[in-house]
Structure formats: C-alpha cells, structure tokens
Amino acid sequence: MNDKKKKPQKLRARLPRGFVDRSAADIRAVDEMTGKIREVYERYGFDPVETPLFEYTDALGKFLPDADRPNEGVFSLQDDDEQWMSARYDLTAPLARHVAENFNDIQLPYRTYRAGYVFRNEKPGPGRFRQFMQFDADTVGAAGVQADAEMCMMMADTMEALGIARGDYVIRVNNRKLLDGVLEIIGLGGDENIDRRLSVLRAMDKLDKFGIEGVRLLLGPGRKDESGDFTKGTGLDAPRVDRIVELLEATKDSPQATLDAISALAGGNATAEQGFNELDAIASLIIAAGYTDRIFIAPSVVRGLEYYTGPVFEAELTFAVTNEKGEKVVFGSVGGGGRYDGLVSRFMGQPVPATGFSIGVSRLMTALKNLGKLGMEEVIAPVVVCVMDRDTESLGKYQQFTQQLRHAGIRAEMYQGNKKNFGDQLKYADRRGSPLAIIQGGDERAQGVVQIKDLIEGKRLSGEIEDNVAWREARVAQVSVPEADLVAKVREMLAAQAEDRARVNRGA
C-alpha cells in the first residue's frame, strides 16, 4: 500500500471567458477619456450619481430576457431572503429605480451622469465582452424636446472635446413615434403585430450594414449573405416595403430638407404627426444653436430597446478603419439613447418624463486609439532610489530621499526587491523604464552627496558613442550633488530629458 500523500494539484490560473484584465496603459487611457467627457457633462450642468452593481431583478424590468429564468442574459443570484438580484445590464434602469425611490428628495429636472461597468450574460466573441463600461447622462422630469436636443448637442461637444474633428462624426436623430405611426399607416399597428413591428424595425436598423437593397430584401422575402446563409424576411408586400424605404431615404443634408421629405409620409396619422412635430421642434433648436453641420434628422435611426418612447439618437464616427478581415469599413456607432418616459413610471404609477444618452467607453476608446487621440499625455516611469546598504540607518536615508522626491511631485520608488547586487538594481530600473537612478553608498554618505544616474542618456551613450572624444563631449550621464540639491537636480535632469523627447518628436 502506497502511503505517500498525493501532492496538492496546482491551481490553474485562467481568465473567465468574456472578461479582460486591463493594463496600466488602458486604465490611463480610459481615465483620460472619461475625464474629458466629464468636463463637458459638468459644463452642461450635470452632476454625478452612482448606483450599485446589483439591483433586484424585477427592477431591471421586462427589457431583460425571460423573467422566469433570471440568469438568462444577466448574471443573477438569490439573496438570503430568496429575492433575485442581478448585475446591472445597463445604467438606465438602475437610475430609474434610484429616481423613483428618492422622488420626494430630488430636484426635478434631475440632471445626472454616471460611468461604470455593466454586465451581460451572453456568449462572448470577438469584440463582444460580458463586462464593459458605459458613460451615461440623463435628464429626468423634463417633458419638452429641448432636453432631447440638448443631449444631442452635448454629444457633439463631447466628440470634439475628445479630439474627433467635425466631419469625422455625426449625431443622428429620429423619433420612435414617427416610426410607430408609419408602421400603423401600413397596417402594422395593434398588439397583435408587436412581433412583426419589431422584425421590421430590426430590418430597418440594418441599413448601414446591408444598404437599402439589403433592407428591401429583409423587409420582403429575406436575404442570403455571401456565405449562403439565409435570413428570413418580414414578408411585407412591395407597396409597404416602398413606403418604409421612402422613409429611410428621406435623410437630406439639412434638418429642414429632411423634414420636408418626410412630411407627406406622416400625414393622416396622429402618432406619426406627433413624432414629426417633435423632430421639427428639435430641428429648430439645432438650427438656432448652429449645430446643423453636426446633428442631422435621420429617419433610419431605430435604437433597439423597447423602452424608447420619443426622440432617439446615435453618435456615429464616419471615418474608415481596417477590420479583422483587412477590409476598410466605417467605424460606426459609439453611443446612443433617447426618450424613455415609461421607465421611471413603472415604479411611480404616474408619468415621469426622461431622456438620456449612453457612450460605449471601450468602443470609443478603440476609435480614439485609431485616430491617435489617446495616450498623448506622457507618463514618466518613477525615479528609482537604489538600496546600496541595508542597515537601518541607510534604509532610513534612502526612504528620506524617496519621500522628498514624492513630496516635490516627482514619481519615485525605493528599490524593494531582494537583489543586493547594484547591477541587478539598475537592470530593474531599466526594465521599469525609469529615467534616473539615485545612488548613495557609504563613501557618498560620509561626504553628504548623492549620485544621480541618467539612465536614458547612459543607454544612448553606450549604444552610439565609440571613442573617448565623443564621450567627453556628450551630456554627462552621472552627476554627484549635495543631498540638499537632490530634488532640484532631479528636476533639471528630467526637464532635459523632456526637451530631448520633444526635439525627437519635432523631427529635429
């Protein structure tokens, strides 16, 4: 009998599917981007609010998949009182709960913004994650479409604050009442046609992907793609398909021209006319504010969620990028939103108007990287204070130097590794990308001086200089200064390095 104990099996480190670890560069890029978005939202008078990651599942509402299977589409768990809770699916439904719960204590209109992660329990794939960040702004308690128009203007200002040039983006606006009214006109009104209406809206939403002829096929008999896969159509007859296509093709170069093109399509139906009138009011505000070169009335904007009740809008980037297949494609939507007057009302039993906009942070970050608009703010690696001696007095001195640099606003760290060899410490600093190393052995301490090694210049000298004359003429790569002058000399050497980088960037 073998009495040897089995070795405990080593745990395998593995990242859950659909989730990502974020690097320092990505975190800084997101912070840089969200900081610029926040500045615009604050300028418009919006204030931050934060809701928890979890909500009771019923608060997230009918917009989730089957309520009898709370884990379908969302991540859910049961509380100790057997109530189902779910990780938030978006940032809008939690806001609706927050407003309803605190309705008597908040000032209406309630203007807030929130940035945070949302979670989808869906099959992950390329560019499709189970956790991603959104950045929302909402106005609750304002019934007038001026609140919707302001959202569109704020999104335009946000794009430009992020460095996206005018002409590289558009904000497109439509109204669900116009769409619903046109569908009523062609005989798709009533509860009995809900599923068919949704199929038609989904087909219309494919305009950017498949073009007008592809949408015609999806509205009619169906469409076969290049691989031979067939998507069943909605089965509309030709006159009804023509009416919808006429609406989709009504987008013109100016808000007023677009409204003129769709006015005949809305006539005779109260719902469609109400949607048309709201778009007309939004167009007037856009024209008055001088945003007609950025914000367009576009009847093809659908927005998928069922809770939209009026104006809907999307921010789209119009420049081309190369996809994973090597094809040039238009980047497309980076955010959207609209009016959702019924969402807060579910909790209140009374009408509570609301409108909002959500930015997909990860997708927008990808776009900004393509444009070279992120990571421009330089992050300098910390200065490394080497540990030459490990007695208490010496360590105290090294810690003193480190704190002096930090208090002066300079990134710094005292070497914390186990390597006692000085060369290994310099290798660590080099791998860290550190600009300078601070060195003080026993002899320097006795003299009250400290050595500062320019690691950037030292690396250049070792690679480029081949003779003693060139070495003598080069910038000194290591200097000795009195302890009292440490901070001032470090600042001076970092400034010289920054000037060198600027000269290289200028092509000098």
UniProtKB/TrEMBL annotation:
One of its GO terms (molecular function) is ATP binding. It catalyses: tRNA(His) + L-histidine + ATP = L-histidyl-tRNA(His) + AMP + diphosphate + H(+). Residues 37-382 form the Aminoacyl-transfer RNA synthetases class-II family profile domain. CDD domains: HisRS-like_core (cd00773), HisRS_anticodon (cd00859). InterPro entries: aa-tRNA-synth_II, aa-tRNA-synth_II/BPL/LPL, Anticodon-bd, Anticodon-bd_dom_sf, His-tRNA-ligase, HisRS-like_core, HisRS/HisZ, HisRS_anticodon. One of its GO terms (cellular component) is cytoplasm. It is found in: Cytoplasm. Its EC number is 6.1.1.21. L-histidine binds at residues 90-92, 120, 134, 138, 303, 307-308. Pfam families: HGTP_anticodon (PF03129), tRNA-synt_His (PF13393). Keywords: Aminoacyl-tRNA synthetase, ATP-binding, Cytoplasm, Ligase, Nucleotide-binding, Protein biosynthesis. GO terms for biological process: histidyl-tRNA aminoacylation. SUPFAM superfamilies: Class II aaRS ABD-related, Class II aaRS and biotin synthetases. NCBIfam families: hisS. Belongs to the class-II aminoacyl-tRNA synthetase family. Homodimer. This is Histidine--tRNA ligase. The lineage of its organism: Bacteria, Pseudomonadati, Pseudomonadota, Alphaproteobacteria, Hyphomicrobiales. The gene is hisS.
